[in-house]
Each structure stands twice: as C-alpha cells, then as structure tokens.
Amino acid sequence: MARPGKAIGGIVTLIILAALAAILYFKFWWVFSDGTKTGELNSLTYTGYVFKTYEGEIILTGYGSKNAAGTVQSKTFKFSVANKEVAQKLNQMTGLRVTVHYKEYKGALPWRGYEKAVVDSVAEEATTSDHEHTEEDFFL
To answer: Are 55 and 88 in contact (CB under 8 A)?
Structure first.
C-alpha cells in the first residue's frame, strides 16, 4: 500500500521540475525577438576561456538629436555569432555597411555567445556608389 504523503511528494517534485524546465526554456531557447539591424561592422572577435565564441559590434547611425538639430547620433549593437560560416563572412566585411538578421533571447548561453542577440545571417548593404545612375533613375 502506497503512502499518500509519498504520492503527493512525487507530484510536487514533478510540478517543480516541469516549472523549472519551462523557465529554462523561456529564458534560454525561446526567441524573444527576431529582426534585422543595419550599420557599419566595427569589430568581430573570437574569444572565450572555455567556450570560444564570435562576438561582434555594429555601429548604428541616426540623425536628429533631441538637443540640437542636424546632429548625428550613433549607438552600438553587440551580438554573438553561433554559425562559423556566418562569422567567416562577417570577418571579411569588417568596416563595411552590413545588414544582419538576428534572434534575441532573454538569456545568453556560454556556448552560444556572451550576448543575448545571436546573428544568423548577413548581407552587405549596397551603397549609392555601387549603383550606376541612369537618366530614368532621376525621373521616376
């Protein structure tokens, strides 16, 4: 005959384990946001003591400070890269204007990188100097 206290203890343990699993999932594996950022790729490093990861930084520029008209503001977007091929592509684009697609998590995992934002793809931004203007471009 099973003791009722033992059955209740087992149920409570299962509930606690399920709650812990849900918390860990939402903190480290559930994608909180996903989007793109465009800016100048400032740096990409391969760093870490135990888990070596790729860490990067993009300078995002903007216009129009609240304090003075016509000023330029900038801020940085720090990210990690889990995919080696994406990191190699980014490494060749340092100093260029790039658009990255990223997924942001509520927590960082050591083997995924130090930042909550993890870049999974990259594209070089086309600049106006890369495009030859024709007469039709000006009249559209």
So the answer is: no
